[in-house]
Amino acid sequence: MFGFKKNKISENIIKQINKKDRLKRYSFLVIGCFLLAFAFNVFFKPNNLVTGGISGVSIIVNNVFGISTSLFIAISYVLLLIISYILLGKTTTKYSIIGSILYPAFVFATKDMATLIHFDVDNMLLVALFGALINGIGAGLTFKYGFSTGGGDILGQIISKYFKIPMGSALRVINIIIVVSSGFFIGDSIYAWENVMYAGIAVYIITYLTDKVLLGISDSKAFYVITDNETSIKRFLMEELGRGVTVLEGRGGYTGDRKKVIMCVIPTKEYFLAKEGIMEIDKQAIILINDVYQSEGIE
Questions:
Q1: Which residue in 285, 296, 171, 295 sits closest to 222, CA to CA?
Q2: 0.85 exceeded by the pTM?
Q3: What are the helix and strand counts (H, E) for the chain?
Q4: How far apart are CA 205 and CA 213, in angstroms?
Q5: Cα atoms in the Cβ-side hemisphere of radius 13 Å centred on 226
Q6: Long-range pairs for 171-175 at CB < 8 Å and ≥24 separation?
Q7: Which of 139, 133, 65, 155 lies closest to 103 in space, CA to CA?
Q8: Strands lying side by side in the sheet with 258-267
Q9: What is the pLDDT along the chain (299 residues), one digit of tens a residue?
């Protein structure tokens, strides 16, 4: 590992990334949040399909206490933003603010959409499939352009930071607990557990589609970077993204020239930030990206 003092270089890189294609990125964020809210209100909520996250908890709370799902989501997202600011800091929290406002707003705006767009389908498998399809695309668009919708992601970040658990694993555990809990609290026991099974199918499809939209089907990506700006790129990956870095010795097969190859494993959700940051530092850099299926202790 290499140690560097914090400086303004990495901060400026982040600012430059956030300025690039701003209209396009924010447009896809809006579309992504709308699709997430649409899937929730039209497919998941009316059929008591709990697929995890704060939205899943809101369905359980609605069934047990009668509290409006949109109200519960709005309050929970605000509280989680405050907790994020306290425990994770200003820099981490600011990337969740817009999504944490847009998603609850769209949930409220589309809360009656199920009565306007009514799918008279008795087959819960179809409901789970189509809901998951729309939700997965919405989540993928949100993460692909460097944003987060907050909520459960903030819980995952907090658990990851304080319990030293990879964020992907933390989110999986949280969602499994929420999905399984719905079987105990929602409706008739037999039908409730059937819904849990359908929800499990939906969660799998959501995860798969989210990763496909992001580019790949794994929790993490291995970046191999061939560059002449080794120090600056190492500094960016370690300081801004908090990732470990390994430097490999490379040699051109034809020219015989020796080059440094930086290897770094990045969570899929940080793919956009890592790629754009590296290209911002060195536009001539060669980046090879592979799926990583097991990376214990990396995230």
A1: 295
A2: no
A3: 12, 4
A4: 12
A5: 9
A6: 174/52, 174/53, 175/51, 175/52, 175/53, 175/56, 175/203
A7: 139
A8: 246-251, 258-267, 220-226, 286-292
A9: 344 444 566 667 766 776 677 788 889 999 999 999 999 999 999 989 999 899 999 999 999 999 999 999 999 999 999 999 999 888 778 878 998 999 999 999 999 888 887 766 677 888 899 999 999 898 888 887 778 888 888 888 888 888 888 777 788 888 889 999 988 888 665 567 888 888 888 888 887 777 777 655 566 888 999 988 888 999 899 888 888 898 888 877 777 777 889 999 988 778 888 898 999 999 889 998 887 765 555 44
**Amino acid present at 276:** E
Domain ranges of the chain: 8-214, 220-292
Q: Which two tokens stand for residue 234?
A: 């190492």
CA angle 205/144/50 to nearest 5° reads: 35
Domain 220-292, what architecture? 2-Layer Sandwich (3.30)
